[in-house]
Amino acid sequence: MFESTALVRDEADLQVVLEEVCHAIGELLGYRAVVVNVYRPAFDDMHTSAAVGSEESVRELVGKSSPRETWVPLLDGQPTIVHEAYAWEREQVWIEP
């Protein structure tokens, strides 16, 4: 999987790699759902770029964006694995690990 990151030449290649990362994390850590959100400076938001999990959750999440400030309490500049329920008050979104 990591070798394929060197082959990324455009957004389609990146999408494939992000989906592979989701699958690998899910398999290695035993998670039923994994989501990759990408910060987009031009929009100052977080964009859900890839996900694995139930068909419904993937359909609901991928392609959605949320304001960066809703993520600040969660991220604090670090990659984050959510181990407990968390709700964004403005977005009314719950994450259940």
Helix fraction by DSSP (H/I, runs of at least 4): 25-40%
Number of domains: 1
Largest sheet: 3 strands, antiparallel
Tell me the β content. Answer: 15-25%
Tell me what you see in this structure.
This protein has 97 residues and is of the alpha+beta class. It has one domain (2-95). The chain is 31% helix and 25% strand. It is built from three helices and five strands, in the order H-E-E-H-E-H-E-E. The protein has helices at 11-29, 55-61, 72-75; strands spanning 34-40, 45-52, 65-67, 86-88, 93-95. It has a three-stranded antiparallel sheet with strand order 1-2-3. A two-stranded antiparallel ribbon has the order 4-5. The chain is globular and about 30 Å long.
From the structure above, extract its key features:
97 residues; alpha+beta; 5 strands; disordered C terminus
Summed up:
By secondary structure, the protein is α+β, with helices and mostly antiparallel strands. Helix content is 31%, strand content 25%.
What is this structure's SSE topology?
Layout (H helix, E strand, L loop, with lengths): L10 H19 L4 E7 L4 E8 L2 H7 L3 E3 L4 H4 L10 E3 L4 E3 L2
